[in-house]
Amino acid sequence: MAKKSLIVKCNREPKFSTRRYNRCRICGRPRGYMRDFDMCRLCFRKLASEGQIPGVTKSSW
3-state class of 4 per DSSP? Predict the structure, then answer.
């Protein structure tokens, strides 16, 4: 889990638009962020394997 203070800081409106920082909307993790889903790779993998993200399936060939 990310520190609460950094999550709150990220949610505030930045002084300049380039200071925007992407964080996972579920756990607040700053790294491994996927823009298409607004979450980190760990939360994405967990929710995808549970079938809670529509249109995402585990690949097999």
Answer: helix
